[in-house]
Specification:
The protein is about 30% helix and about 25% strand. By secondary structure, the protein is α/β, with parallel strands linked by helices. The C terminus is likely disordered.
Length: about 290
């Protein structure tokens, strides 16, 4: 079994009286890319918040190297776990360079403020996310995609062994989505970073994940390699979507092709819409 530094045991998470995740166990495979998928409001982002100690469990615990996160100093956690939340908020008028530089705060002490290592980490993170030319721009003046890349750069500059990303491709066009996910794979392959990401796009998840976790109604219903997990039955059970699963022609990973309503019912295609593609994740009603 693959070693795991970050684990959850009997984890129940709630917002006041509303339980979102219940009695969940999870072992994050060390040195791999884990992607969490599932329908809206199934607990994906809530689980990620708990893994990064942004949400205290109602029951159970999250463990880092066998120690409860609640008993580990905040600075120690920040040196080990980097977290990019779904909707981060930047201080007013802060520049991109200043934002990315804040990723180095966990590594600094009162006797050692800014070092060549800090400069190298920030410069490299900005180059890899293509925001170097935006260094002096205010974050709140950027487009959604530019702002997202600046936040990702800050998380990369933190240079933690564990990186948690909540929908890192939000606001990005398809080209930058691929660039960001390729970067995640590169960080994993070349630097051995363990990554846990929440993604909405099941095809992207299947393509980039080593370990796929499918959630529904606050519970894990399946996990493992995408080739083992992603089936037509799982897509129907978790997302309520009839689909065909075929090999991706480029990577060989599972590729989900939504079935058209008339195909699912055994009818003939409507010639008026025969060439209209159906987006992954769209319901039968949306595509009709």
């Amino acid at each position: 079994m693959t070693e795991s530094r970050l684990t959850a045991r009997g984890l129940t998470l709630a917002y006041e009286e509303r339980t979102v995740v219940e009695d969940l166990d999870l072992d994050v495979p060390h040195g791999q890319v884990t992607v969490i998928v599932g329908p809206n409001a199934c607990g994906k982002s809530t689980l990620l918040r708990a893994l990064g100690r942004l949400l205290k469990p109602k029951y159970g615990s999250v463990l880092l190297d066998g120690k409860d996160l609640d008993r580990i100093p905040t600075r120690t956690i920040a040196q080990s776990i980097g977290l990019l939340p779904q909707t981060p908020v930047a201080p007013e008028a802060i520049t991109v360079a200043d934002l990315v530089s804040r990723g180095r705060q966990p590594h600094q002490r009162w006797w050692q403020q800014w070092s060549e290592e800090d400069e190298r980490a920030v410069t490299g993170a900005m180059e890899r996310t293509d925001v170097t030319q935006l260094a002096e721009r205010a974050v709140d003046e950027l487009s959604g995609g530019q702002r997202q890349r600046a936040w990702i750069a800050m998380a990369l500059a933190q240079e933690t062994d564990l990186l948690l990303l909540d929908e890192p491709t939000t606001y990005l066009d398809i080209s930058h989505q691929v660039e960001v996910l390729d970067l995640v794979r590169q960080l994993n392959h070349e630097r051995g970073r363990t990554v846990v990401a929440v993604l909405h796009d099941l095809n992207q998840a299947a393509r980039y994940a080593d370990h796929l976790v499918a959630m529904k109604a606050g519970r894990i219903v399946a996990q493992g390699r995408p080739s083992q997990v992603v089936t037509a039955d799982l897509v129907r059970d978790v997302f309520g979507l009839d689909a065909v699963v075929v090999p991706d022609p480029v990577t060989g990973s599972p590729l989900i092709v939504p079935a058209r309503p008339w195909q699912a019912e055994g009818g003939d295609a409507d010639p008026a819409t025969a060439d209209t593609p159906v987006a992954v994740g769209a319901s039968a009603a949306d595509s009709g």
